[in-house]
Amino acid sequence: MLVHIIIFLIGLTALYFGSEWLVKGSSRLAKSLYIRPIIIGVTIVAFAGSAPEAAVSIVAALKKNSDIALGNILGSVIANIGLVLGISAIISPLKVQLSVIRKELLIMMGATILFYLMALNLSIGFLEGLLLFVGIILFIAYSVYQGLKEKNKNQLVEKEYEKFLKGKKGKRIKLILLSLVGLILITSGANLLIKSAIFIAQKLGVSELMIGITLVAVGTSIPELAISAVAAYRKEADISAGNVIGSNIFNIFFVIGAVAIIHPLSIEKNILGFEFPAMLLFSLLLFWMMKTNLTLSRTEGVILLGLYILFLGFLYFSGTNSVS
Q1: In DSSP terms, which residues pair with 124 in a beta bridge?
Q2: Comparing 240 with 265, which gets the higher pLDDT?
Q3: What's the Cα-to-Cα distance from 181 to each of 57, 168, 194, 227, 319, rounded to whole Å?
Q4: CATH number of the domain where residue 250 is located
Q5: What is the pLDDT of residues 143-164, one digit of tens each?
């Protein structure tokens, strides 16, 4: 058991550094090709937070472990709101622009509701996966269009990513190698994570779905937590909140879409009674909190974090009854 816990942590570490190096290499490579920072920001950098979830879920789908793939995304969406934004708001209240409420947050709500509706027939197949995948293409196109159209947003992205994108220029071949190493680390880390997670689930006598919702989901949400917490500490609320909202959109549209295209997702009937409603509840609660004074206060952060702890507690005490 100890060996597999160590393997799990090694896989998690590989995912973290792999996603960081992939983003740094590919972002700076794009910059060297004179691609505008706004486009890099809403595509490559936005994908960064979802890279671990994508790798784990897609590898799980290829191995036909759909429970881990599904649990990972369900758990990550909830963790991003309850854990990541909860802690970020406690560090510093998050004040967001009205445009975020009207656009990105509404898109996240729409994606979450669509995900739930698709799950009602207890499966998400190829065509539904294709529809979700088209959703991420449209979202990226919309984000690029809005970024180029809105001068203020363009300036914000320039300010936030200028230093990051410049870095040490280096030769393009080095940036390509850095990106490839990052991709290899992500893939190998995902493999290690899944193998160890399955073993741990079997030893603890719980379902792979529960391991996906808890252990794997929290692990793959670490990049979002790191980015959002640092942004909150620096009083950059838009980056902190936008990171989570964008990550949830990517997780549902891109990851679930890709997974369903690779291998149809089979959904247990009983998780429609708790896990899916929990995802909807956290999303609706976030929308309501942010709509009030356009701020996520410290008190609301405590509430979100408290609810997330209760969510994990319920899963723990209910054992396999709610997920098997």
Answers
A1: 265
A2: 265
A3: 20, 18, 20, 22, 39
A4: 1.20.1420.30
A5: 777 766 665 555 555 555 555 4
Distance between alpha carbon 282 and the CA centroid of its chain, in Å?
Answer: 15
Residue 271 and residue 232: Cα distance in Å, rounded? 33
Question: 201 with 207: CB under 8 angstroms?
Answer: yes
Separation of alpha carbons 61 and 135, rounded Å:
20
Range of the domain at 236: 2-322
CA dihedral 87, 53, 21, 200 (to 10 degrees): 90
> Total domain count for the chain?
1
Here the tokens at position 240 are 């902190």
Strand, helix or coil at 206? Answer: coil
- Distance CA(221)–CA(224), nearest Å, equals 5
Spatial CB neighbours of 304, under 8 Å, sequence gap ≥ 6? 81, 82, 85, 86, 89, 282, 285, 286, 289
> Which residues is 95 bridged to in the sheet?
295
CA dist 47 and 139 (Å) reads 12
Mean pLDDT of the chain: 81
pTM: 0.80
How do residues 63-81 score in pLDDT, each as one tens digit? 888 788 899 899 999 999 9
In eight-state DSSP terms, residue 94 is E
- Specify the pairing of strand 295-296 against strand 94-95: antiparallel
